[in-house]
Here is the input.
Amino acid sequence: MRSACTIGAVAVLAWCSLWPAAWGFAHAEVGSVIENVEMPVIGGGKQPLLTAAEANVFIFFKPGQEHSRATMKKIALVEKETAGKSVRWVGIVSDTIPKADVQALVKEAGIAMPVLVDVGDALYGRLGVALQPVVGITDKDHKLVAYQPFAKINYAEVVRARVRHLLKEIDDGELAQALHPPVATRSDDTAAARRRLTLAEKLLQSKNYEKALESVKFSIEKDPALAAAHALQGDILAAKGICAEALLSYERSLKLDPSDARALEGKKACAGKVKNP
Here is the structure.
């Protein structure tokens, strides 16, 4: 990306580092109409940035960047969930990125969306993209509903909620809840929850189910919003042969994080063993 933040002057770099994360698009405000443009596709041909779909989601990313790789893997799960629905997904990369690097990430992440090439970083400049990855979402009239700068926690979940809201699958209250999920009351609670989660994982691997269950319950008490803890509790209960209770744990995990792979796999495995789960 050819942005002001790549300029070599120390003063400019220092100033750029102070840009708040919320400045995902410095030149486009929520509510403004995004100009539709036709762009080259990494695999050949051209496609428009936006369509008449109820939700248009475009993701600026950089293959060599750790946060971009992690984001695209999570977004791929949301993309699969919306298959067949009125949602348009596209990735956007700078034309300075080698084609092979982009294709490698597409394969690694498992995304099906076309990846558009921003020639001369024209779109980057027009929207004022300062940081990557960043997701833009428009409605069917191409009005910008939201832009989501990268966040380490619940990033894909927020994008999913935005899309579901545009599809009228959730209401305003459910969207607000997804955008502001419950958190542990103190940061040390979250840290303690994760430590016990790690211990519970090790205890499960050693088949010490009772101690594992004790540890994971402690983790959940410390941070009830930790989806991974509910999923692990499901695995422990399933290992003990209590699939009916395990299913409840998997459901709680998926309510917090619908893309949790452990919960999805556990629920599928347990569902076949329980009548009328």
About this structure: Residues 19-179 form a domain with the Glutaredoxin fold (CATH 3.40.30.10). Confidence is low (pLDDT under 50) at residues 1-23. The first helix runs from residue 10 to 16. The chain is about 45% helix and 15% strand.
